[in-house]
Amino acid sequence: MNKTVCIDHLVTGDSFVLEPHNHYDILQTTPQPKQLEKYYDHPNYISHKTQGTSIFFAVYSRFRQWNHNYKIKIINKHYQSKGKLLDFGAGTGSFVEFANTKGWQSEGFEPNTKAHGYKANYQPTWASPKSYHVITAWHVVEHLHDPRAFFEQALNSLADIGKLFVALPNYKSWDANKYGSMWAAYDVPRHLWHFSPKGFISMAKDCGFETEKTYPLRLDAYYVSLLSEQNRQSKFPWLKAFWSGWRSNHAAKQSKNYSSLIYVLQKRK
After folding, report:
1. Residue 139 to residues 53, 119, 129: CA-CA distances in angstroms?
2. Within a 10 A sphere around the Cβ of 88, how many other Cβ atoms?
3. What are 37-78's pLDDT values in tens digits?
4. pTM of the model
5. Which terminus of the chain has fewer Cβ atoms in its 10 Å neighbourhood, N or C?
């Protein structure tokens, strides 16, 4: 594929190039800044906020609550005995708090201390080997400089019968194709990697995990479409985003290329 040039619409206006990986069906943001803190230090970086008064934040909070319920149902389906859960890249800690209310012994790991909120139990490091029954990484792996190192640590920290749950944007989705370089889920340079299902499953396999099942995150199509319309500075962005989100989910009924996907993984046997 041709290289795509994307702009950091949130903070700096800097340009970055998406280059195909030489082995996996994924894209890599180039250059990759070694120090990313300044790219997160913005009042509109909503996933690191616990409070807000805008209509957009109210909608985001409602989406987040619905997704929390959806995610915990998936977790309980694949690991029915409540146990110890680590939310890697916990952000404000809202999912950690929610999982605690559902009977899980939940902890969060979040390197950005400015994001810490609620009353989540934040851990400074990964715990000892085989100490977690479930590890979650909700829209986190794409932010990491070294995704393979994450898999290696998860493999070490997860119990033998434990499950790893990863949520990621899908650059093969209908909305990604529609918006191109304006697709908000590229979110350069905060997103350093951009996965297709094939690419992620292949990398996970090489790192010792097999994919048990995938689930769509249908609300993400609407949310990402809204951000993409804002990147375009469109008129009537909410209306256009609703239509694009619906079109993306409708197309994915056949292609299975939803805007975002949850991957359920277990250790390879």
Report:
1. 24, 21, 24
2. 25
3. 888 876 655 554 444 556 766 777 788 899 999 999 999 999
4. 0.91
5. C
Label the pairing between strands 26-30 and 15-20.
antiparallel
Q: Is 80 exposed, middle or buried (0-12, 13-18, 19+ CB in 10 A)?
A: exposed
Interacting residues of 203 by C-beta distance below 8 A, sequence separation 6+: 24, 26, 147, 148, 151, 195
State how far the Cα of 226 lies from the Cα of 9, in Å rounded to an integer. 14
Alpha carbon of residue 215 to chain centroid: 13
Cα atoms in the 13 Å half-sphere on the side-chain side of 140: 22
**CATH number given to 4-267:** 3.40.50.150
Structure tokens at 17: 């190039």
Question: Residue 268: what residue type?
Answer: R
CA atoms of 43 and 238, how far apart (whole Å):
21
The angle that helices 94-101 and 55-78 make with each other, rounded to 10 degrees, is: 50
- Tens digits of residue pLDDT in 164-216: 999 999 999 999 999 999 999 999 999 999 999 999 999 999 999 999 999 99
Sign of the torsion angle spanned by Cα atoms 158, 76, 257, 231: negative
| Radius of gyration of the CA atoms of the chain, in A | 18
Contact indicator for 98, 71 with CB cutoff of 8 Å: no
